[in-house]
């Protein structure tokens, strides 16, 4: 980038300045080799760490299927589901997620698929 101002070198105690992208002066450029940006893996969910979200929701809901719990049934949850599904504008916020068991999840997915196809409409 032309015109980008020199920044202080990232190396500790170095008074040097640099215009390098890695942020080290020429003397310390070798240190930049080990410094890497954390890789942003595409998880297919907008880069959000779904596994961690999932664990958090399962913990919050005490590992119990919430739709079952509302009916007074205690079923161990196997999944974390979007209350408002992503196709309908739902997001990965905690409020839109709940623990769910496989049968409930399947039923909900089928229900959503049916509505999506407009068979009932
Ligand atoms: Zn330096
Ligand atoms: Zn259930």
TrEMBL record:
The keyword Nuclease applies. One of its GO terms (molecular function) is zinc ion binding. Coiled coil: none annotated. Residues 52-106 form the HNH nuclease domain. CDD domains: HNHc. It comes from the Bacteria. Keywords: Hydrolase, Nuclease. GO terms for cellular component: cytosol. Belongs to the HNH nuclease family. This is Putative HNH nuclease YajD. It comes from Vreelandella subterranea.
């Amino acid at each position: 980038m032309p015109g980008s101002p020199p920044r202080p070198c990232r190396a500790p105690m170095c008074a040097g300045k640099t215009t390098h992208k890695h942020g080290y002066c020429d003397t310390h450029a070798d240190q930049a080799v080990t410094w890497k940006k954390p890789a942003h893996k595409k998880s297919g969910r907008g880069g959000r760490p779904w596994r961690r979200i999932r664990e958090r929701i399962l913990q919050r809901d005490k590992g119990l299927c919430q739709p079952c719990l509302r009916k007074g049934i205690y079923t161990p949850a196997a999944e974390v589901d979007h209350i408002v599904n992503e196709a309908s504008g739902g997001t990965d916020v905690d409020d839109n997620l709940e623990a769910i068991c496989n049968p409930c999840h399947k039923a909900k997915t089928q229900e959503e698929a049916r509505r999506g196809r407009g068979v009932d409409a």
